[in-house]
Every structure is written in C-alpha cells, then in structure tokens.
C-alpha cells in the first residue's frame, strides 16, 4: 500500500489535507482504479504511437518495487511489470521519461518513520533508485528524481508523506528538514545514475509558480520576489549545489536549524541535477496586501485582469511560459524540460460522440508558440511533454471531470463508464504538430 491510496479526493490546493486510512469504507476513491492503465497500457501506448509520440513521461511506483519501503529485497513481479511497460514503449520507438517518486511512497514509511522528515528514508530511497537503475539501465536514459519537489513545503503529506498541520510551530522546520533529506536522496540518485547508466541524464522537477507584482510599488515587487524564492530555493539547491544566502536568513529569522550530517553539503554540491524539468499551467499576481486569493497548481495569488481563466479558475498565460523559460535558463544555464503543460476542462461528447476541444487546441497552440519564441531567445529546451496525453484522475481536484488528455476515457467521477478510449479533435491536431515538428500549429 502506498500513501496515494490514503489520499482523500478533493481540492488539493487547500493547505491542510484530509487523510483517510480506512480503505474498507464505503467511500469511492476515483484514484484506485483510475483509468486502469495497468491493464490497458498496450492499447494506450498504441494510441500514443499513432500520434507520433517520441517520448512518454510516467513514473515507477516505489511501493510496487519495495512494498514496505524498508524491504531488503525488491518485489520481482513489480519489476517485471515495468519491464513489460518499457519494452512496449521501446517497441513503438517511444523513449521513457521516468520519475522515481511521483506523489507516492510506501505507506509503511509514513507509519513507522514519519515520512521524509526522517533521515532513514534517504537510504531506503537510494536502495530503490539503484535497484531500478540497474534493472532498466538498457531501457531508460532519462530520469527525474522527485515530482514537483517544492510541493513538500505546502503539501507535506502529498510531497513528503508527513502528517503535519499548517501553522504548527514546527511546521516550517519539519518541511524544510524533509526537503533537505530529499535533496540528499536526489544527489545520491544522481550519483548512482551516473555510475550505473553513464549515458543517462537525470534531472529535478518542480511546480513552477510564475508570478507578477500587482503594482510597481516596491513593496509589491519585493513581496513577489519573496514568493518566487519559495520555489526557486529548491531549484537553486538542486541546480547550483548549495543553499542560497536568502534562505539562510529566512531560517535564522524563523528559528529553523537544518540537521545535516558531515558530507551532505559536499554531496549536494558535487551531484547536481543534469537538467531542470517543470510543470507550467498558469501564473498569478502577488501583492503585499492582496485583496483576493485564487489558487491553482500549488500557487496562491491575485487574479490578473489581462488574462483569461479556465473553467477551474487557472489563469491562461502563454507569454508567462516564455518569461519563465528565459528566467530559469538565465539563472542556471542548464537544459530545461517542460514535462507538464495543459488545460483541464470538462469535455462533453457532442451528438455524434465526438469531443471538439478547440479550447484545448488554442491553449496548447499558444503555449507552443511561446516555447518556440523562448528557443529563439537562446533557451536550451530539451523537450515538451503536455499533461496529460490521456484523461486521468486530476491530482488537483481528485476527479475525472477535469480532463486534460488528447484521448477521452469513458468514466465519470462516480466510477461509471466503460473505460473505452476515443480520440478527441486535439488528438488529430497534435498528431500533425508532432509530424511537422511544430511548424504547423
């Protein structure tokens, strides 16, 4: 059992999650069966291949390989499943892009050790990483350590397997201690990956929180810089290899003392990420004294009157993607990789059963154009992987209704439906985008 099994569906952008450990209750959990990719991956990969996919980002479930997390030997049946999955991708000339930890970990590590605030998880994660590197060294050449690693700061259960109450005096200390343990674990994974798979690349991944100051008032500008640093701290450590001076002042002013062991700082400095991957969906506006609060993809701020808004209140900002790409490349001068970008919408089949999702096409078209402009600006961009290629349970709301994919899955929030797959209008559009390498939008 993994922590994802105990996450109650609901608005994940609340700062305090409700956690259920009673899996025998009458409640319905959309995430448990989800779209049943486990049994239907061959069918789904064939559809991805039909679109012309060159790469697919997915993840290995840590709990499938080491069910308790602290096991001494891996679960062979779990390893065999990913052998079959990766072989199927390779058969269709689709390169796997694999995340080691994507919002799940063995539940035992929470119950016995308290999650990532416990140093012992570093060793368990290294064992897991080395196991899968050795197993799949000939099949996977692109790896990511932790999905949206900065989320541990605002969603400690989701990002760190920790039951913490926001506002508790120890909250900040424990989330930053957990982050440090993940930094060390990530560096150990980078070290192991380079040793086991010399021709592989392994990167970090964060949820981008691009924001603008509400006015040119210096107080708003400073507040925005402070807000952006809450995210950039994570990439500064993992890309530059050291704790920046601004976070040291923050720790001092908040009585936070990170427990490090000898060698941690050297390890983090020596084994930085090969590339920076990130999710980008929206931007926000930050003010010293905000008049309102909107949320989306783990970010908080005010609305921007110059932008349109999705059905779920996420502001659509393709120019922001260009700005973010330039900012990150200017800061790190290492390759960037967009591994999530898309529009969540309530898709409805028409009288002919077709999904005419022109709104999704418009969203993706504008963001791809912005991406192309960033490349012309000189940004080293490894690739672009939309979220998601097929409808699935939305992480942000825990529902099927909020759809992202090019492929429609017949299932609703109550679990009703055939799970039949069908092609949306965006499927055919994006197929041509790939075929033309982005020239025809």
From TrEMBL:
<dbReference type="GO" id="GO:0016052">
    <property type="term" value="P:carbohydrate catabolic process"/>
</dbReference>
<dbReference type="InterPro" id="IPR018120">
    <property type="entry name" value="Glyco_hydro_1_AS"/>
</dbReference>
<keyword id="KW-0378">Hydrolase</keyword>
<protein>
    <recommendedName>
        <fullName>Amygdalase</fullName>
    </recommendedName>
</protein>
<keyword id="KW-0326">Glycosidase</keyword>
<dbReference type="GO" id="GO:0005829">
    <property type="term" value="C:cytosol"/>
</dbReference>
<dbReference type="Pfam" id="PF00232">
    <property type="entry name" value="Glyco_hydro_1"/>
</dbReference>
<dbReference type="GO" id="GO:0008422">
    <property type="term" value="F:beta-glucosidase activity"/>
</dbReference>
<dbReference type="InterPro" id="IPR017853">
    <property type="entry name" value="GH"/>
</dbReference>
<dbReference type="InterPro" id="IPR001360">
    <property type="entry name" value="Glyco_hydro_1"/>
</dbReference>
<comment type="similarity">
    <text>Belongs to the glycosyl hydrolase 1 family.</text>
</comment>
<feature type="active site" description="Nucleophile">
    <location>
        <position position="340"/>
    </location>
</feature>
């Amino acid at each position: 059992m993994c922590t994802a099994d105990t996450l109650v569906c609901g608005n994940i952008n609340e700062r305090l999650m409700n956690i259920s450990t009673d899996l025998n209750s009458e409640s319905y959990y959309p995430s448990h069966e989800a779209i049943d990719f486990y049994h239907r991956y061959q069918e789904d990969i064939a559809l991805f291949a039909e679109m012309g996919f060159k790469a697919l980002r997915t993840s290995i479930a840590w709990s499938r390989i080491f069910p308790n997390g602290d096991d001494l030997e891996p679960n062979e049946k779990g390893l065999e499943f990913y052998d079959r999955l990766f072989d199927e991708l390779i058969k269709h000339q689709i390169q796997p892009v694999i995340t080691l930890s994507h919002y799940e970990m063995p539940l035992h590590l929470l119950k016995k050790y308290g999650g990532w605030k416990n140093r012992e998880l570093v060793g368990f994660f290294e064992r897991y990483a080395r196991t899968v590197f050795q197993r799949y060294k000939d099949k996977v050449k692109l790896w990511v350590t932790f999905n949206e690693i900065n989320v541990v700061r605002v969603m400690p259960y989701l990002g760190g397997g920790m039951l913490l109450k926001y506002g508790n005096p120890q909250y900040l200390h424990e989330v930053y201690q957990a982050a440090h343990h993940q930094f060390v674990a990530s560096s150990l994974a980078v070290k192991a990956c380079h040793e086991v798979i010399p021709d592989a690349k392994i990167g970090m991944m964060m949820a981008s929180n691009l924001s603008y100051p509400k006015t040119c008032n210096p107080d708003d500008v400073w507040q925005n810089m402070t807000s952006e640093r809450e995210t950039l701290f994570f990439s500064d450590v993992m890309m530059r290899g050291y704790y920046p001076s601004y976070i040291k002042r923050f720790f001092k002013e908040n009585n936070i003392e990170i427990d490090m062991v000898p060698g941690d700082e050297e390890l983090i400095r020596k084994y930085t990420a090969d590339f920076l991957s990130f999710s980008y969906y929206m931007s926000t506006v930050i003010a010293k004294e905000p008049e309102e609060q909107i949320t989306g993809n783990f970010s908080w701020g005010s609305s921007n009157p110059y932008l349109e808004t999705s059905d779920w209140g996420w502001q659509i900002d393709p120019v922001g993607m260009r700005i973010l790409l330039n900012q990150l490349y200017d800061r790190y001068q290492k390759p960037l990789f967009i591994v999530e970008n898309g529009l969540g919408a309530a898709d409805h089949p028409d009288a002919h059963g077709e999904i005419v999702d022109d709104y999704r096409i418009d969203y993706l078209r504008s963001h791809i154009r912005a991406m192309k402009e960033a490349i012309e600006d000189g940004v080293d961009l490894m690739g672009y992987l939309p979220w998601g290629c097929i409808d699935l349970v939305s992480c942000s709301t825990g529902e099927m209704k909020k759809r992202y994919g090019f492929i429609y899955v017949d299932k609703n929030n109550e679990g009703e439906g055939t799970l039949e797959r069908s092609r949306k209008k965006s499927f055919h559009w994006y197929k041509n985008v790939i075929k033309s390498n982005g020239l025809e939008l």
